[in-house]
UniProtKB/TrEMBL annotation:
Residues 523-576 form the GH29D-like beta-sandwich domain. Residues 1-28 form the signal peptide. GO terms for biological process: carbohydrate metabolic process; glycosaminoglycan metabolic process. Pfam families: CHB_HEX_C_1 (PF13290), Glyco_hydro_20 (PF00728), Glyco_hydro_20b (PF02838). The lineage of its organism: Bacteria, Pseudomonadati, Bacteroidota, Sphingobacteriia, Sphingobacteriales. PANTHER family: BETA-HEXOSAMINIDASE, BETA-N-ACETYLHEXOSAMINIDASE. One of its GO terms (molecular function) is beta-N-acetylhexosaminidase activity. Its EC number is 3.2.1.52. Keywords: Glycosidase, Hydrolase, Signal. The active site is at 301 (proton donor). This is beta-N-acetylhexosaminidase. It comes from Parapedobacter pyrenivorans.
Length: 682
């Protein structure tokens, strides 16, 4: 969804103008002079922090209400991964007592730390919020950990705090999706939206249309149900998205006679059988994702050129008594909403229509609309037209392979503000809501689009914390320095929870991450030597270099690995044959650096970059070691040894697709290629 503009305008982040700041109304938040409250999002009420509970020598016993017994394995997993502590259930005299308190509302909880610990919550999810806050508070000490003695009363201001994961452009393995769920849970993000179909892939295991799931890149029914349950136990709800009638190439390839020919570029919404088939798919998805009160129908970026030309379309327009083909698209939205509503769910969709529809077809105002790019309709106009909206602003809360904004930029933003990186979008000039319209914004969502599995975790992990603070307490006082310290603490613990091992890498070029650009921490110039050490005893470490999730019988990591070319490394920590933790990364051989001079925007991206220029663009190459040959093409094709040599510096005067590749003496690619979209502008 929503990535056409990303493909057409692959600008770098340096295109972004300086972030406009807005002072939002604030409610005074609790002070913590000692910096001992290391919780993200920051709780709303914290009593005086006046003592320390030492955990040394104390058994981690828990007393759980019957309704929470199914979450005991989560507590046990957390305590072992983070502190190598065993959690034992007891009926009385527990170190930690969990209690359902009907006097609390929403997902509110009260965490009290004295000589013992009590967690009261409005429901099971609220109790998990309290448990997560407790884990974030534990400070390691020589004696085995300590906690600040205090009382925390906390609750979310917004129910809809979301993250979107695109699993239909680049397939994501089940362990990787679980890690995104873990990130959501850690930062009290309630909803994880899965984008289940697009032109590239259809990943949902439909039984009504067995030829539809993309071969080799789809989930089994058991895997989908496993993800739903994994999320439920952690207080996260998976929201399914069936994005139609655009973004449906995978459907039309599989069943062109039912959904329309591939060249139609959209579903054949003039065909009643197509409409019924879509309801069948939506019904199947709702059955699997039963925990979600919402269903997302997509409905964005529908290109109707071919559809409008067909006689069958004109016939359908007349049969319905509509004015034009666009009414058939609007009717699709209405019909799918009616079906979703009949199943007891609420409909979500992307901002994708103007006004309130058309003269003949009105879009119901009980559909919740994600305002994202402002090109179809400004968010303030959506409000005026009677719609309740959620903020999914392109800037700064979209993450793509080539465009992403920093943790600080997201933190200094607010949920009543829309921005865009394109000067043709209304939100190029930021749109800021005043107090009178703020109550119509009922949620916020970070959207991660088009990224590979290896890109997702390092991109999502630092951007969810600031979003969580906005969703949990939009009116909260913002102190970035204090937030950054809390986030440093929570990130360290979360990384231990996700992957309790350390991969040591000798031979890196930079050795540290760059927040705006993907994967620089994994660049090397010649040979990379890897060793691994698990922080947990008894782990069986397995790995693959073929892009597959490692299985218990895959290669055992028991000696240093020597990597000599770009490699996708996936590592699994196993115990008793069960996958405990997982990590996936691309180790990129980059024997040269590239610099662009004369660019209107310098992409500063050694991967898939882009740059605009007015007169000419100078591209210079600097080898980081001896390189046998550097070749290039100007038409987007992969260079070969027969391609022209790239000189140390070359000047380009026209638009084109520049692809640079190093080769070794045997004529094989030496490291990753460098690709740039260069565009001459007026």
């Amino acid at each position: 969804m929503n990535m056409m503009l990303s493909n057409l305008f692959s600008f770098s982040l340096l295109l972004v103008s300086a972030l406009h700041l807005w002072a939002i109304p604030a409610v005074a938040q609790p002070q913590d002079p000692g910096g001992r409250i290391t919780i993200v999002p920051l709780p709303k009420e914290i009593s005086e922090v006046n003592g320390v509970l030492q955990l040394a020598g104390m058994a981690m016993t828990v007393a759980l209400p019957d309704s929470l017994n199914d979450r005991l394995p989560v507590l046990q997993h957390d305590a072992y991964q983070l502190h190598q502590r065993a959690v034992h259930p007891v009926n009385s005299d527990a170190l930690i007592t969990f209690t359902i308190d009907k006097g609390l509302t929403g997902d509110g909880y009260v965490l009290t730390i004295g000589e013992r610990i009590t967690i009261n919550g409005a429901n099971g999810d609220a109790l998990m919020h309290g448990w997560t806050s407790l884990l974030q508070l534990i400070r390691e000490s020589d004696g085995g950990g300590e906690l600040p003695q205090c009382t925390i009363r906390d609750w979310p201001s917004l129910d809809y705090r979301g993250v979107l994961l695109d699993v239909a452009r680049e397939f994501q393995s089940v362990p990787s999706v679980k890690q995104v769920i873990d990130i959501c849970r850690w930062y009290k993000i309630k909803y994880l939206q899965l984008h289940l179909n697009d032109d590239q892939l259809f990943v949902f295991p439909t039984t009504a249309f067995p030829d539809m799931p993309t071969p080799g890149k789809n989930y089994s029914l058991a895997e989908m149900k496993e993800l739903v349950e994994y999320a439920r136990l952690r207080g996260v709800v998976i929201v399914p998205e069936f994005d139609a009638p655009g973004h449906t190439g995978s459907l039309r390839r599989a069943y062109p006679e039912l959904f329309g020919a591939e060249e139609l570029r959209m579903l054949d919404v003039a065909n009643p059988e197509t409409m019924e088939a879509c309801k069948t798919l939506i019904g199947e998805m709702m059955d699997v994702f039963y925990t979600s009160p919402y269903f997302h129908i997509g409905a964005d970026e529908v290109f109707m050129g071919e559809f409008k030309k067909r006689p069958a379309t004109a016939k359908a327009v007349k049969a319905h008594g509509f004015d034009e083909p666009h009414d058939l698209y609007l009717n699709y939205i209405v019909e799918m909403h009616r079906y979703v509503k009949s199943r007891g769910k609420k409909t979500l969709m992307w901002e994708s229509f103007q006004g309130n529809g058309s003269e003949k077809v009105k879009i119901p105002t009980d559909i919740l609309v994600f305002a994202w790019e402002t090109m179809y309709q400004r968010p303030d106009d959506l409000i005026k037209n009677g719609y309740t909206i959620l903020n999914a602003s392109w800037k700064p809360i979209y993450i793509t392979p080539s465009l992403r904004w920093t943790t600080e930029q997201i933190y200094r933003w607010n949920i009543w503000r829309w921005e865009h990186f394109l000067n043709i979008a209304p939100a190029w000039e930021p749109i800021q809501f005043g107090p009178e319209d703020q109550q119509k914004v009922v949620g916020v969502q970070l959207c991660a689009w088009e990224m590979t599995e290896e890109m997702n975790i390092p991109a999502i992990l630092p951007r969810v914390p600031p979003l969580s603070e906005h969703g949990w307490d939009p009116h909260g006082t913002r102190d970035y320095d204090a937030f950054s310290k809390r986030m440093t603490s929570t990130t360290s613990k979360l990384e231990q929870l996700l992957f309790p091992a350390e991969i040591h890498k000798a031979g890196l070029t930079y050795g540290r991450a760059h927040e705006r650009f993907y994967n620089r921490e994994n660049y090397f110039t010649d040979t990379l030597t890897l060793t691994i050490s698990s922080r947990l005893p008894g782990m069986d470490i397995r790995y693959t270099t073929n892009g597959e999730v490692p299985l218990p019988n895959d290669r055992k990591w028991d000696r240093p690995l020597h990597i000599t070319n770009t490699t996708t490394l996936r590592v699994g920590l196993y115990k008793a044959g069960q996958l405990v933790s997982y990590k996936s990364e691309v180790l990129e051989k980059r024997p040269i650096t590239i610099h662009l001079s004369g660019a209107h925007v310098d992409p500063e991206s050694p991967r898939d970059g882009s740059a605009d220029f007015r007169e000419s663009l100078r591209v210079s190459v600097k080898p980081l070691r001896a390189v046998h040959a550097i070749k290039y093409t100007w038409n987007g094709e992969k260079p070969t040894m027969a391609s022209p040599d790239f000189k140390a510096e070359m000047t380009f005067n026209e638009s084109g697709f520049l692809h640079i590749q190093c080769f070794d003496v045997a004529g094989y690619p030496d490291g990753s290629g460098y690709m740039y979209t260069l565009k001459k502008i007026k």
